[in-house]
Design goal:
The complex is a heterodimer of chains A (215) and B (238). With 215 residues, chain A is an all-alpha fold. Chain A has 10 helices and no strands. In chain A, α3 packs antiparallel against α9 and α9 runs antiparallel to α10. Chain B has one domain. Helices cover 75% and strands 2% of the residues of chain B. In chain B, strands 1-2 form a two-stranded antiparallel sheet. In chain B, α2 crosses α7. The chains are: A mainly alpha (215), B mainly alpha (238). Chain B: One of its GO terms (biological process) is cytochrome complex assembly. Chain B: This is Heme exporter protein C. Chain B: Its main location: membrane. Chain B: Keywords: Cell inner membrane, Cell membrane, Cytochrome c-type biogenesis, Membrane, Transmembrane, Transmembrane helix, Transport.
Chain lengths: 215, 238
């Protein structure tokens, strides 16, 4: 347990040194800025489609740090050192997942406030969007850790990570965007279900991938 | 199961089996296609366009069956480290992707006259499109790793994770009852009339045999490539 907290703290510190949440948040806000240019600044259209756009932006922003979650520690041998200390790979993957989520989840939820203003979202939509992001971003983090462990050490890992992660993230986006409507309770529950499932399998899948990557 | 771990024994069976599967499959496809085009009636509602069925259904079955086989092979590689399973999974990926794309294309062409749209974001179509992207991802991942012919254990994990999508595709028409019809052919029988149904058996079996032949050919090509590699290395060493 103690080792896990140490890994989380270390990962967070490393991510802050590397620019922290600035990259995903800036990217997220940029997408929110570009969208009105692309479809025209019609306030009603933006209010109707903005929530879904922010979900896609959140997904793309979650994809950005994926390359840095596992690969640097694997290349520098830190993962092996941690394994030698008796920390299981599953435990390590869990710690990495939590740190990865802390690195982009809450910052994105804060960045959603200005982005909602840019896209003319109503207060209720914003509330539903924040609730959906709070439930859905752990699922995105879980997926990110799995894909990060799978692509670590491969040629062209960055492009590959996108190709592998985006199809698997489709349910999160569908249910997340589905929870934005007036009767979005069902969508929110399904979002919670898929997010829970991903969080539950991520430590085992990513741990197995880390172990397999040693061979 | 491990009896076929020896490539020589596997090749001894795969080599004579390949032409039987390939030519038998092609023959059945031709019979099914001629029967489907000339000897089965047009649908009273859909007219001639119902004949797309004879390609669409086998393609869908092979697209989904392909990933199921890929996932089973991945499991065998991951748990028992069967030496041929990685080669099999990699051999399945490309024809699986091809048939998934064929299923989407024929479905789209079929949808235009009958539904009035090329594409609808319905559960079945969306999950099938996701399957196509999963195939692309798997192929890219397999190509990125250094294993020759086979795939790495990490790739096998992706094959297993991607299998989550298969039951979703299968149940999608029941869960989200939208434009795509519910299953017509179930264990309880078929709601398609026999006059239209029977050529489908020929094409489905034919495409399946052809799929098997393609997979065997690709596996043999991979094994040959590994052999050439090993021989070159031996020659360089001596």
């Amino acid at each position: 347990m103690n080792a896990m907290l140490l890994i989380i703290r270390r990962d967070l510190a490393a991510s802050f040194r590397a620019g922290g949440a600035l990259l995903p948040v800036a990217f997220f806000l940029l997408v929110a800025t570009l969208f009105p240019f692309a479809v025209g600044p019609d306030a009603q259209l933006l209010a109707r489609t903005g929530g879904g756009v922010l979900w896609v932006a959140a997904l793309l922003a979650a994809l950005l740090p994926v390359e840095r979650v596992i690969a640097p520690d694997r290349d520098s041998g830190v993962l092996d050192q941690i394994a030698l200390r008796g920390v299981s790979d599953e435990m390590l993957a869990l710690a990495k997942m939590i740190a990865h989520w802390l690195g982009f989840g809450p910052p994105l939820m804060i960045a959603t406030l200005p982005a909602a203003a840019l896209l003319n979202l109503s207060g209720e939509t914003l509330g539903r969007l924040e609730a959906g992001l709070a439930i859905g971003t752990p699922g995105l983090a879980a997926l990110g850790v799995i894909i990060s462990a799978i692509t670590a050490g491969l040629r062209g890992a960055g492009a590959l990570a996108g190709l592998l992660m985006l199809p698997l993230a489709v349910p999160l986006v569908i249910f997340g965007a589905g929870s934005l409507g007036e009767f979005g309770g069902g969508g929110l529950k399904l979002l919670a279900a898929s997010s829970l499932l991903l969080v539950a399998i991520a430590p085992f899948a990513a741990g197995a991938a880390i172990r397999a990557g040693r061979e | 199961m491990h009896g076929f771990a020896n490539p020589a024994r596997f090749l001894g069976i795969a080599k004579p089996l390949t032409p039987w599967l390939a030519w038998g499959g092609l023959l059945l496809i031709v019979i099914g296609a001629i029967a489907g085009l000339y000897f089965s009636p047009a649908d009273y509602l859909q007219g001639q366009s119902v004949r797309i069925l004879y390609v669409h259904v086998p393609a869908a079955w092979l697209g989904m069956g392909g990933w199921t086989g890929l996932a089973i092979a991945s499991l065998m590689q991951f748990v028992w480290r069967h030496p041929l399973s990685g080669i099999a999974a990699r051999a399945i990926a490309l024809p699986g992707a091809l048939f998934t794309a064929l299923c989407l294309a024929t479905g789209s062409i079929w949808g235009r006259p009958t539904w009035g749209t090329w594409w609808e974001w319905d559960g079945r179509m969306t999950s099938m499109l996701v399957l196509l992207f999963l195939y692309f991802g798997y192929i890219a991942l397999a190509n990125a790793s250094d294993e020759r012919g086979s795939v790495s254990r990490v790739t096998a994990i992706f094959g297993l994770v991607g299998a989550v999508n298969i039951p979703i595709i299968n149940r999608s028409v029941v869960w989200w009852n939208s434009l795509h019809q519910r299953p017509s052919i179930t264990l309880q029988g078929s709601s398609i009339d026999n006059a239209i149904l029977w050529p489908l058996g020929f094409t489905t079996l034919g495409f399946t045999l052809l799929f098997g032949a393609i997979v065997l050919m690709r596996m043999r090509a991979s094994l040959a490539e590994i052999k050439v590699d090993a021989r070159l290395k031996r020659m360089a060493a001596s």
